[in-house]
Each structure stands twice: as C-alpha cells, then as structure tokens.
Amino acid sequence: MIYSAFRTAALAAPDAVAVIGHGGTATGYGELLAAVDEAADRLAERTRPGDVLGSAVDDPAAFLALYLTAARLGRIVVLLDSDMPAAQMRRYAQRFDVTVLATDNEEHANVEGAGSASFALYEVDDADEHRARAASGYQPGDFVVHCTSGSTGEPKGIVMSQGAIDARVRLWAGDLELTPADVVLCALPLSHCHGIDVLTLPTLIRGGTVVFARAGRLTGRGLAHRIARSAVTVVSGLPIMYQLLTDAVSASAEQLGSLRLTISGSAPLPVSTQQLFHDRFRKPLRQVYGLSEIGVICYDRRYAGGGSVGLPVSGIEWRLEPQSARDSDGAPLYELHVRGPALARGYYRDPAAEAEMFEDGWLRTRDLLRADEEGWYVRGRLSGFINVAGNKVGPLEVEAALRECPGVRESAVLGMPDATGAESVAALIVADRETTFDLAEVKQTLADRLQSHQLPQRYELVYSIPRTALGKTDYAAARRLLDHAAGVTS
User: Model pTM?
Assistant: First the structure.
C-alpha cells in the first residue's frame, strides 16, 4: 500500500525532487525508488521472514529507502532515534524484540555504503530469543512500531498495520490538499509520527518535495532563510519553531511569502505566539492536535485561533464523554474518545496500558477538551490534573495564563503534594530577558484570569524548562528540578 503509492508517484515523475537532506543534497523520486530496490536486496540477503527490523537511521533518504523497503517486503519495523546512546539502543531492541538493526550512527556499528541507502545492517545479540518472542508478541499484519516520547515513565511501543498508516497518510494528504507543487519543511525526526506520518509520507504519495532540517540547530533567521531558499509552501512543526521566527529581528514577511500553510503541533501552542506570528508575517498559524495512536485528530482549518485545535479531520469518528471537571468559566469539559481506519491495534506486550487506552474499538485519549462550535480546546490530561482541595486544575490552562503574564518567557506547572497527600500548584518560570520580571505583577495578572484554586502557591525561577528531544516539556525532569529548587520564590 505505502510502497505502491510511492512507486506510482515516482514513476509518474522520476526526475522530480523527492527529498532534500539535512546538508542540502537532493534525491529524486527515481533515485529513491532505486535505493529501495538496493535496500530490498540487502534485506532479502541479511534477514528472514519474521525478523523485526530496528531503524536507527539519521539520513532522510536512507531512512525512507529502508522504511519503504519494509513496506514492500512486509517486514515489521521499529522506528528508533538514531541519536540514542548504544546502551539505550540495546534496551529498546530488547523491549521490542528487534532482531536486525539498521543504523548510520558509527557509535552503533561501522557504516557500510550501498548507493544512496547508506546504513549498516547487523543482527543484534540474542536475536534467536527475540525471534521467538516476536513470533508470539506480534500479529499478522503488524507493520510499524512507534515508540512514545517517554516524557513520563517508560515508553510504549504503538503497533500499527500498514493499512492504518496508509489511511492516516492518505486522509491527511487530502485534508492538506497536497500536490506535486508543494514543498514541505520537516524539522522533526522521522522516528516520530509527526515527521513521518504527518509530513513526509503524505508529501511523497502526492509527488511533492520534503526539505529536511535539524530543529535543534535552527535559529529564527536560519529558518526564515531555509523557507525562502527552498520556496517552502507547507510548514508543520513544534511551537518553538514559530517562537524562533517571531523573535528573529531579521525574519521578514517576504521570506515567508511562499507559505500557504503554517501548522503547529505536538505541543500546546501559546496564544501569544500564534497572534504574534499572524500580526508579523500576515499568515494564520493553525494548530493541529493528535496522538501517535491514531495520527491527526483535529485541525484548525477555518482558523478560529485563540488556542483552538479546530474540529475533527477526515476519517475520525468521535464522542465526548462528560466529566466532573469544569473550565475556568464553569463550562463543561469532556474526555475525547476517537476511532477510525488510522487507529493502532494496541501496544507491544503492554496489556495494562492497552486496557487503559483502548476500549471496545475506541481510543480513550485521556485528554480533557472544551468543545465549542467554532473549535475545540485541549485543557489537560485526566492523569495530569492537579487535585487542589477536590478541584481539578489543568496544568496546561495555568501554563497558558502564565505565558500571557508580563516578564514570563516559558513555564511548566506541576502538582506539589504535601504529607497528607493533598496537592497545590507549583510553577517553574523562565523570565523574559528583554522585560522586567515582577512576581507581584504576575500574581495579580493570574488572579484576574484564574480561579483561586488554580493559582500557584509556589514559584521558582529557572534558566530553562526541561525539554524532551522533540521539544515537549519533560515533566519528569521538571519535577526533579522543582524538588531540588531552593524554594526562595513564593
């Protein structure tokens, strides 16, 4: 399915550019199709049916050659971060019963060249044991395993069929109205579903071009230059990308003139950033919301703005389950349940997590939403709410209010338990260097916007908010930072 769709696009325009790598090297559709053939020969020689392939490949063209080969041959592929330390890579291989690892990271193996598909391919330790476990752990039709970001606790392996991937890719490509004329910027790793399922595969099956960039090395000036140089038409990335652009003095509306769609996802988008981007570059910054288990769920197509994630996209069935929690103005909140052809079948060897999230063919998102006619708003996670004297406080809502306070650059909000098990709200704050930070003013601003039980009882100034590799708040690390803070800011 995925391979056939790509092959059709490649044969229709073999000389068109499919991929522009991190270093600016262009790979045409015909070249990438040939690389798939090379990778298929290597896999046929070095693997056997039933092997589970771990992909820890950094180079985009090589990654895609391997991914499309796995789709063509019907192999199961576990998508891994190529920057993982070797010891962590071994733990992941054991966790998901990887038998053969493909990598272009010299820390993991000596890289051998094979045309445009340059990666090393080798059998992992205890491969036969993993094969035996995989035979009973995986099911017929399983294709891809996405590893969750792991911002809290151990990561889970989200198992999807090729049919589910095909559905999410085709439906999203249709919602974005992608064409061969589109140039899509991808500044996320291909091991993450936003990078592969939301950006790259939808573009390739429509014959467009994907331009890759390393998000961790981007500046606002460099990002604007990259967009202008490649005449990028679609950008979808983390909120930090748009914060970099709005902060860059030299970035101009003219440099972003080729863009027809700018989209933010994978983390909450500050309303202030959304408004600044619109005012400065004269383009709407739309928000998407989704989960790796099903892909994109909502998209602010009509641009409601104001923090809205829009309404459900094509192929999503949904229902809203009423909850006791209320929004700050008393409006009801709901837990969102979704299903559709893009839904994963579950988690690899994790029945407890599967029972918690998958129920009678529905995915329980565990996210609480406010549902208005013009758009939905994510208010927090059921498991992430802070219980303050019986009142449920959503950290995301408090963080959003903090970001609107003068002198506050970033924030992270957590529950602070006491000896009795009761909780209060604590806030980590990064002060804006260009304005004066006044805690009294911050408290007054919050008091005007939030209810009393939502107000932080402890504030800590920190140099930076801990982030995961994808730029999301690392709440486990933030918790450790809070525990070790001096506690002098209150």
Answer: 0.83
Torsion angle, alpha carbons of 55, 56, 60, 65, to 10:
-30
**Inter-CA distances, 172 with 70, 200, 298, Å:** 22, 11, 11
Q: Do the Cβ atoms of 86 and 74 come closer than 8 Å?
A: no
164 to 145, 153, 167, 250, 292: CA distances (angstroms): 12, 26, 5, 43, 12
From CA 279, how far away is CA 276, in angstroms rounded?
A: 5
pLDDT (tens digit per residue) in 155-214: 689 999 999 999 999 999 999 999 999 999 999 999 999 999 999 999 999 999 999 998
Q: Which of 29, 13, 86 is nearest to 54 (CA)?
A: 86
What whole-number distance in Å separates Cα of residue 69 and Cα of residue 40?
Answer: 6
Distance CA 465, CA 159 (A): 31
Q: State whether residue 367 is helix, strand or coil.
A: strand
Name the DSSP letter for residue 473.
B
Identify the three-state secondary structure at position 91.
helix
Most distant pair of Cα atoms in the chain: their distance: 68
Q: Which residue has the higher pLDDT, 239 or 84?
A: 239
Task: Report the candidate in 208, 195, 272 with the shortest Cα–Cα distance to residue 236.
Answer: 195
Supply φ then ψ for residue 472, to 5 degrees. -80, 155
SS (H, E, C) 274-285: HHHHHHHHCCCE
User: How far separated are the first and last CA of the chain, in Å rounded?
Assistant: 57
Q: Which pair of tokens denotes residue 355?
A: 């029972």
In whole angstroms, give the CA distance from residue 345 to residue 165: 11
Q: CA 103, 239, 341, 338 torsion: positive or negative?
A: positive
**394-415 per-position pLDDT tens digit:** 788 889 889 889 999 899 999 8
Percent of the chain at pLDDT exceeding 70: 93
